[in-house]
Task: structure prediction
Amino acid sequence: MPVAPAHPIADLYTEHHGWLHAWLRKKLGCSNHAADLAQDTFLRLLTQEQRGRPLEPLRQPRAYLATVAHGLVVNHWRRLEIERAWLETLASRPESLAPSPEERSLLLEALCELGALLDRLNPKARSAFLMAQLDGLSYIEIAGHLGVSERMVKKYMAQAMLHCLQSGLAP
Result:
């Protein structure tokens, strides 16, 4: 009976999963988070393949895996930072106004999505958007903070709003 050829990602997993888990454990200091992110790294590769972008033969598989995993580590740290800020905000509110655990989870997920969305904006557009939405600053005030013209602030705001609309989030 002929043996089916191995899948490139399965081979990559078999050969490098242990190394990747150890690499992530050193970065994160937690074996459980490292295991999760190692799995997420290979899941990302499978997802890309399902989207029609097959994995090309790799000359340096560990460097490639480390690059993909590093992006996931950055996202993990960003999520922890957002979660920490959210928990601090909740702690400062009266208990009677605290959302339920389900609402908390949904809000945290939305905050993480928004954070990732804003991170894809250019830094000045992101700053302008946040100053307008969170601080309530006028375009002239934002222009002064950023050292740009009011016209440029309008352009940044248009970029940010278009980005939000394209992603399904309305400001």
Summary: The mean pLDDT is 84. DSSP finds seven helices and no strands in the chain. Residues 7-99 form one domain. The radius of gyration is 21 Å.
